[in-house]
Design goal:
Two copies of one chain form a homodimer. The first copy, chain A, is about 70% helix and about 0% strand. By secondary structure, chain A is an all-alpha fold. The first copy, chain A, has two domains: about 50 residues, Arc Repressor Mutant, subunit A (Orthogonal Bundle), CATH 1.10.10.60; about 140 residues, Tetracycline Repressor, domain 2 (Orthogonal Bundle), CATH 1.10.357.10. The interface between A and B is large, with 42 and 42 residues. Chain A binds a DNA duplex (30 and 30 nucleotides) through helix 3.
Chain lengths: ~210, ~210
DNA sequence: GTGACACTACACCGTGCAGTGTAGTTAAGT
DNA sequence: ACTTAACTACACTGCACGGTGTAGTGTCAC
């Protein structure tokens, strides 16, 4: 009579090994994709026996799920940090706002997107989401929500003219970040300089469109 | 003494079957991904024996390559058509320009992107390009080139203020189309109405930033 | 009829891989 | 010393799939 514990992990185990396995899986999934990564390879990279991988995670899908979950969390908290650090409440001039926006976009692209883990992660999610419905839940608009909240505040203070803060946030993201991890496809490991230029130009256009007057 | 013909297709064959195989491969690759699609499944869907698939295309990779090639071509020509139909040379007012831009963006999203084949295609390319270096060549900036050429003309006629037409084209694409096939990830089969609204808003912002004065 | 050709049906090989079962080792707790 | 838990090493099952080889069938040209 087997007592089935429905918890995700089968073992309590040393958290250290869990992390090693998860890390190895992350690296390999992001680099080679889900299908092309074997559990044997993950085990080897984690310095752990294949059996242990199964003892911890049960099946390969669970491993992918855990990887995505963790990556999403760290992405969102990185963005949260960028918002807090840059989109502060003490701005008074449009010029101050400009440099705050530039700083914010740079911070995000460097800490999150630029690491190129971001695009790899998104690639992974969209490639596998058809087969892993649970992934859909993790898809989020949190980043845009955070930004739009700040825009709303700036709007109230007269720094921006934003009838629809959420839309403005979408536009800001499109102008400064989306082009960096371009929607038309290419991986683009753009040089630092050109990324900075793109951000400056994007902020420029954004302000031209959303500044009062 | 086997004479090796280095041509891509091993057979001349009935072009009809070639197309059937290619079409089947396209549907399956886009729906399920490269790795998850078996050659047997392609053959079955094309109503052809597996052996024939190999006689025509040699190996699975070649099939993928052909699919991407064909899809890219048809995508580009669809965009070309949208440009020709909408971004005409007879515009005189900013209001005329506005509706031309809206028409253009709608036409593109409907004929190319909206079919959702576009995002599936891009997903496929970026997911497999690591393993298929030949794909890189097919990655193009043609669409943006076409648009920027039109912007340059409008700039000369005083309808737009575009010191850097290519940049303006990037911004236009980002504002109107990229958000549709969003970079943040989700598949987004958005309703027609909301897509239209997004386009109108995007054009609005674009014009606010790029109109003279 | 004879040949050439395009194609199918089918068997087949090799391999890589998800997942399991198990015996044995190590180390800690008592 | 005894028990228990965490792991490893390793063998093994089952399957799916890429790719090939081949015998046979239909069809057209001459």
């Amino acid at each position: 009579m087997a007592m089935v514990e429905a918890g995700k992990g089968v073992r309590a185990g040393s958290a250290h090994k869990r992390a090693a396995i998860l890390g190895a899986a992350r690296e390999l999934f992001l680099a080679d994709g889900f299908e092309r990564t074997s559990v044997d390879a993950i085990a080897a990279r984690a310095g752990v026996s294949k059996r242990t991988v199964y003892d911890y995670y049960g099946e390969k899908r669970a491993l992918l799920l855990a990887v995505v979950e963790q990556a999403m969390d760290s992405l969102i908290s990185a963005i949260q940090r960028s918002v807090d650090d840059n989109l502060t409440d003490d701005l008074t001039s449009v010029e101050g706002l400009r440099s705050a926006l530039v700083g914010f976009a740079r911070s995000v692209t460097e800490s999150a997107l630029g690491s190129s883990d971001y695009s790899a992660l998104m690639r992974l999610v969209s490639a596998e989401s058809a087969n892993l419905p649970e992934l859909e839940e993790r898809v989020t608009t949190e980043p845009e929500d955070l930004v739009s909240e700040r825009f709303l505040r700036y709007g109230r203070r007269g720094l921006l003219e934003v009838p629809n803060p959420r839309l403005a946030a979408d536009h800001f993201v499109a102008l400064t970040m989306a082009s960096t991890a371009s929607a038309i496809g290419r991986p683009v490991a753009q040089s630092d300089a050109s990324t900075r230029q793109m951000i400056a130009d994007g902020v420029d256009v954004f302000l031209r469109a959303y500044t009062p007057r």
